[in-house]
Amino acid sequence: MTRVEGFDRSVEPFRPELLAYCYRMLGSPQDAEDLVQETYLRAWRARERYDETRSSLRTWLYRIATNACLTALEGRGRRPLPSGLVTASEPLAPFRPGESASWLQPLPDSSLAAGDPLGSVIDRSSLRLAFAAALQHLSARQRGALILRDVLGFTAAEAADVLGTTVVSVNSSLQRARARVKEVEAEPDGLREPSAAEQRAWVERYMQAFANADVDGLKQLLTEDVVMEMPPMLNWFAGPDNYGVFMEWVFEQAGRDWVLRAVAANGQSGFAAYRRVGDAYELHTLQVFTVTDRGISRNSVFQDPEIFAAFGLPAGLDAHGAGDTA
Questions:
Q1: Cβ–Cβ contacts within 10 Å for residue 144, how many?
Q2: What SS3 string covers 2-38?
Q3: Could you give the 3-state DSSP secondary structure of residue 321?
Q4: Which among 13, 22, 55, 112 is placed 20 to 30 Å from 35, CA to CA?
Q5: Taking a C-beta distance cutoff of 8 angstroms, is the pair 25, 69 a contact?
Q6: Omega of the bond prior to 188 within 30 degrees of 0, cis?
Q7: Which parts of the chain fold into alpha helices (H)?
Q8: Of residues 139, 164, 134, 132, the one with CA closest to residue 64
């Protein structure tokens, strides 16, 4: 094996966790992919300068990735979700598109699975949409400090090395970041998070009710404080009654004949919804659910071609709900 081949083989196993890290920093799967590519390019160019006596290979790669992320975040606005940006609206209020085109986007679980098939390296709970949205309220360096220390388990000294600062600065950023996340994170404390199988079971029951256009059945699966949001629209609302009113309108406007395909994003269950149009089905939305032991507490609904593409979803299905009509 050549030295070049040895380098490639030694750094490649870190790719999935670096992708998850860059996603938490940027809030966009595509931006995260680009930054990981940039990280590996910079690492390749600097490989002769790597000194294993000064830091581990993992720490060295995270330092490069962090610098790339901080550069990318300069001058950029945050990527919020509507519930973190404006007050709630009525369920049948006219849709209001947001002025910003940059919204928090879901991360397909499949993008991490190839390098981490057992999910043993990456903490999927730290990818939840609610947590990713809360991170967007932090400065870039606060995000880095919080992720490195609380999510990835770096020591204060290691985090300072990665961020190119002091331990005192890291601890200060971490303290402020923790306080801010606690202030803005949407999910209440004290709720047990069901197992992955239990979450999927809740969502499968929701999918069955949705496919039957059964609004009462949908409402029975929701928590009392359930939230639905629909970026890039600013509209969002809370409560099962508002949810039911909106879903009645959806079925009236988009029909009651749907084909659903299960998806997984941010360590959460969801589905892609295809509505009947003529003799085929057209991709309508991608929906990602937050599930607690009390039921479904959040539905984040996306209708963005870039997001559809990231999940490899066909634009259309045939009359039998199969194939790709695009």
A1: 28
A2: CHHHHHHHHHHHHHHHHHHHHHHHHCCHHHHHHHHHH
A3: coil
A4: 55
A5: yes
A6: no
A7: 3-11, 15-26, 29-45, 57-73, 110-113, 129-135, 140-146, 156-163, 167-184, 196-211, 215-219, 240-254, 305-310
A8: 164
Euclidean distance between CA atoms 326 and 318, whole angstroms: 10
For the entire predicted model, the pTM comes to: 0.91
Digitized pLDDT (tens) for each residue of the chain, 326 residues in all:
455 667 778 999 999 999 999 999 999 999 999 999 999 999 999 988 888 888 899 999 999 999 999 999 998 888 989 998 899 999 999 999 987 668 999 999 999 876 554 455 688 788 999 999 999 999 999 999 999 999 999 999 999 999 999 999 999 999 999 999 988 875 554 456 788 899 999 999 999 999 999 999 999 999 999 999 999 999 999 999 999 999 999 999 999 999 999 999 999 999 999 999 999 999 999 999 999 999 999 999 999 999 999 999 999 999 887 776 55
Q: What are phi and psi of 136, to 5 degrees?
A: -70, -15
Q: Quick one: 50 exposed, middle or buried, by C-beta within 10 A (0-12, 13-18, 19+)? A: middle
Distances (CA, A) of 195 to 124, 125, 128, 253, 307: 12, 11, 14, 35, 26
Strands 295-302 and 222-229, how do they pair?
parallel
Give yes or no for a contact between 325 and 317, defined as CB atoms under 8 angstroms apart.
Answer: yes
What one-character DSSP code corresponds to residue 51?
A: -
